[in-house]
Write a structure and sequence with these properties.
The structure is a single chain. By secondary structure, the chain is mainly beta. It has no helices and 17 strands. A 4-stranded antiparallel β-sheet has the order 1-2-5-6, with no helix packed on it. Strands 7-8-11-12 form a 4-stranded antiparallel β-sheet, with no helix packed on it. The chain has a 3-stranded antiparallel β-sheet with strand order 13-14-17, with no helix packed on it. A hairpin with a 2-residue loop joins strand 15 and strand 16. It is globular, with a radius of gyration of 18 Å. The two termini are 36 Å apart.
Length: 201
């Protein structure tokens, strides 16, 4: 949208490989070309035979590269699960956030999100299974910089060269299963640095 309020559609994404909705969840601009890189989160799909709603298909999400002038787009990275945001540095290295690996424990009816004594449920997306992966510009194998993150949703590259990732999607304080037993949702910002050799998170 421009400052004078004009709106122009750039691209309309078709369903993903398994038929799930293509949900543009995060984007970044390639500073070298001006292309827009878009993380396509996998939305719902309804099984036509059973009527069941499938909320997540592992490996169905992807990142696409969009020419903002023509609207043409091509796959940049496929086979992702719940890709939700992307960032790129000045060298063209790409950082992709995958929020979760599976869908677990849907909420029962009339679940009280603010009850501190509620049972610890994933409540949909599997907690503490998100990750950030570096896809080097030179085409060398991708490297996981941080994993076991609790539903990461956004990433940005700071002026200090560190990556900053928001985690803890959901109602603050709600009981959830943790890697070491029951815990509670805490919204946090995670910093990843020194990833030239190893990640500090």
């Amino acid at each position: 949208m421009s400052l004078d309020g004009e709106l122009r559609e750039i691209a309309l994404f078709p369903p993903l490989a398994s038929g799930q909705q293509s949900v543009p969840a995060g984007l970044t601009v390639d500073p070298r070309s001006g292309d827009v890189l878009v993380a396509l989160f996998s939305g719902v799909i309804v099984d036509e035979d059973t009527g069941d709603v499938i909320l997540l298909i592992p490996g169905d999400a992807k990142v696409v590269r969009v020419n903002p002038e023509t609207g043409e787009f091509v796959d940049e990275h496929t086979g992702l699960t719940a890709a939700i945001d992307v960032a790129m540095d000045g060298l063209g290295n790409l950082y992709i956030v995958e929020m979760t690996v599976a869908f677990l424990d849907p909420f029962p009816s009339k679940f009280d999100f603010f009850d501190p004594g509620a049972p610890p449920l994933h409540g949909g997306y599997q907690r503490f299974s998100g990750k950030v992966t570096l896809y080097p510009e030179d085409g060398s194998p991708p490297r996981v910089l941080a994993d076991g993150l609790d539903t990461p949703t956004n990433i940005t590259l700071g002026p200090d060269g560190a990556l900053y990732v928001s985690t803890g999607q959901g109602t603050p304080g709600r009981p959830i299963p943790g890697p070491d037993g029951p815990t509670k949702i805490v919204g946090e910002i995670v910093r990843i640095r020194n990833y030239g050799s190893e990640a500090d998170d």
